Amino acid sequence: MDATFWALIGLILFFVVIFYVKVPAKINGSLDERAETIRKELEDARKMREEAQALLSEYQRKRHEAESEAEAIIAEANSEAERLTLETSQALEEMIARRTKLRKTRLHRPKARQSLKSVPRPLTLPLPLPRKSLQRR
Fold first, then answer.
1. I need a labelling partner for 80 at 20 to 30 A (CA). Which of 54, 62, 86, 116 fits?
2. What digits encode the pLDDT tens for the residues 8-41?
């Protein structure tokens, strides 16, 4: 019996002890638990990805709505600004026309006054009031 024989006997005893202690079953159980853990993590990751996609689409929809609302507000503000500009320019033109007319009227007034000065006035004499009759009353 040489050393090779004893090495073979030791190897056989090693495998018998391993199967007796059920090491392969424990290894398989450990691997199955690890595979189940990985499967659960993948399922959770898939659910989280779906939730993230749903949130992303919701936020994109809200952003689109906000952008369209902002565009509507800007368009309304522009039309309001144009309307106010038009009203202001019309009011300014009316004010300029009134002032121009007023200035022309004022320019012609001195000429009218001068023409009135050339018309002879009737002679009026002041009449003295009796002082005694006023004092008694």
1. 62
2. 999 999 888 888 778 888 888 899 999 999 999 9
CA distance readout (Å), 67 to 45, 77, 79, 123: 32, 15, 18, 85
**Tens of pLDDT along 50-91?**
999 999 999 999 999 999 999 999 999 999 999 999 999 999
Does some domain include residue 13? no
For 35, the domain range is 23-89
Structure token pair of residue 95: 């004010």
Instruction: Give the C-alpha separation, 23 to 30, whole Å.
Output: 10
DSSP notation for 81-102:
HHHHHHHHHHHHHHHHHHHHHH
Domains of the chain: total: 1
Domain assignment present for 124: no
